[in-house]
């Protein structure tokens, strides 16, 4: 199945380079390019891409605001979608900046992944595939900093009342390991379970907590003091 990608960056040379890299993969089709956040929103609604590779610093509307408008849940109606077709694209934020506030804002806006522009071509292609498949992706350096910072902030915080309501003890174990950045295979090894069983537990966690993907699960776990 072809992954339809929209590229949003205010520099033409960057857009063209990303398009060339991604188009070299036979399963990826670059369907459009946007030079700012507003254009990205308009093109996303017109072209219905599966993944948007989104820069942060852009004129008219930045990538964080564009991500929130395309992926965020409208106030008062969590089930509704801002996209007329009812499909929300996945957003992979790609930037030269790895400042913590950008990471937090991107995740809060609904991004499924965050890569730095110094990532390799292979990492970029892999990142598009990962977020298109519904998983979360953070650059390793960002993951370490994110986890470390949340751990410092939440060290003495107890889990929020009701934060794990409905989760079984095993599902709670899985959620905590997701928050530590472990893959399904690594969680399976840690808990001595089959990988398919872990996938089932992950699905149950996301469904019970009304989370969109693993990225939201990571944020949820740290915000509710479940890890630290």
TrEMBL record:
It comes from Actinomadura yumaensis. Residues 160-225 form the HTH luxR-type domain. Keywords: DNA-binding, Phosphoprotein, Transcription, Transcription regulation. The modification 4-aspartylphosphate is found at residue 55. This is Response regulator. Pfam families: GerE, Response_reg. The lineage of its organism: Bacteria, Bacillati, Actinomycetota, Actinomycetes, Streptosporangiales. It comes from the Bacteria. Residues 4-132 form the Response regulatory domain. The keyword Cell cycle does not apply. The keyword Metal-binding does not apply.
